[in-house]
Amino acid sequence: MNVLIVHAHNEPGSFTAAMKNLAVVVLSEEGHEVRVSDLYAQRFNPVASAADFGSRANQEYLVYALEQRHNLQNATLAEDIQAELEKLQWADLVIFSFPIYWFGMPAILKGWIDRVFVSGLCYGGRRIYDRGGLKGKRAMLAFTLGGQSHMFGKGCVHGEIETLLRPIQQGMLAYVGLEVLPPFIAYHVPYISETERWDYLTSYGEHLLTLDAREPLVFPSLDDFDTALRPRSDGARGASESPECLP
Amino acid sequence: MNVLIVHAHNEPGSFTAAMKNLAVVVLSEEGHEVRVSDLYAQRFNPVASAADFGSRANQEYLVYALEQRHNLQNATLAEDIQAELEKLQWADLVIFSFPIYWFGMPAILKGWIDRVFVSGLCYGGRRIYDRGGLKGKRAMLAFTLGGQSHMFGKGCVHGEIETLLRPIQQGMLAYVGLEVLPPFIAYHVPYISETERWDYLTSYGEHLLTLDAREPLVFPSLDDFDTALRPRSDGARGASESPECLP
């Protein structure tokens, strides 16, 4: 398979970078084609703006998603976005490699999503979730954080890690139709010993070699929602839980 | 009070910008001092890197938070970070004004958090949550989104809006000690009528005039956790719910 690793760490000697380097080696050895978008090395611009567009549907008033669609159709998207899109379309698996900054992605990586997950191609209208434009491809997160694992969970200081990850795994990846594999998480990385780091690298290598055996995460299916994206009332869901949608 | 509005929209004529403009007028009329960081207008750089530091604790290996503390102490932080920090320290209330991009902040605003919430000043070690460095100040989100309100809630297509907001409201704002006021949310903004927009602006104005009457959101208190940030077992929490922290 073709693997794109989108990597965002400002220190090439970091443990996150070591994980990325290991992934390149392990996946290449398995016979996969691997490409890396090292956003810091590329000096990737994460700011979504009018400068991303060589032509405009509306010169006077910028509606970013509208201009994404217009420029996609006219092949006038900025060169760097076009280059990333080509890698994304080539990929069968996308690995996002980053340190957690403030319970989320570093801005340079969030900006890759903002600018590269273009409307019209990756999603559109009701072409979201299991109707999304990148359906057929897989994605996973491989990230590091400073917090220790005991800080995460129900009633624990930072709460459940799943809710921390939902805006990313559901709101970004599942939203465009990617099948989301379970994340690989390295806790407390700035503080752990050399031995513990090697243990994490070994685990990560094993994780990468067993992706096909892992159950993908479950996200909404548009089968369960009507054309206005309201929950269907025809029993697709089962009677146990009434949806409680905002008015 | 001193109000800092941190605003991130790439179209000055947008509804999000209209909300920001309204906030300036309403709050000024009430006698408050208001300053705006219009990140797009400022061409704010959201990328956290070695370039943020005029001096280095470690020249060979970049540990971003370490260098934030070192540069804070030595007054060698990049000028743009220093300028934003001064506004942040001056503020009693910080309003974050933005459109939702992919269930979160646009990258330019995420980068403001990444670069301006400096370690040593805003937080550090166990100086988090109700021990955080910005304790005594308040914050709120004022944001717009394309989705309709019925898409949010338990069992609804995008899930509960609170879990979407948790990485921001808990992971960024509460984490540094800010008291987080309930957000103001404008749904389906690209698609609603002129009348509906005026209604939202009116509501937002009223919301801003009644901040003192609103119950702040509740987040963890370090009173309930030990020095390793594990839940205390001495009954502070009550017997009803056993924490389930990762091992």
Automatic annotation (TrEMBL), chains A, B:
InterPro entries: Flavodoxin_fold (IPR003680), Flavoprotein-like_sf (IPR029039), NAD(P)H_dehydrogenase_qn (IPR051545). Keywords: Oxidoreductase. GO terms for molecular function: NAD(P)H dehydrogenase (quinone) activity. Residues 1-207 form the Flavodoxin-like fold domain. Pfam families: Flavodoxin_2. One of its GO terms (cellular component) is cytosol. Belongs to the NAD(P)H dehydrogenase (quinone) family. This is NAD(P)H-dependent oxidoreductase. It comes from Pseudomonas nicosulfuronedens.
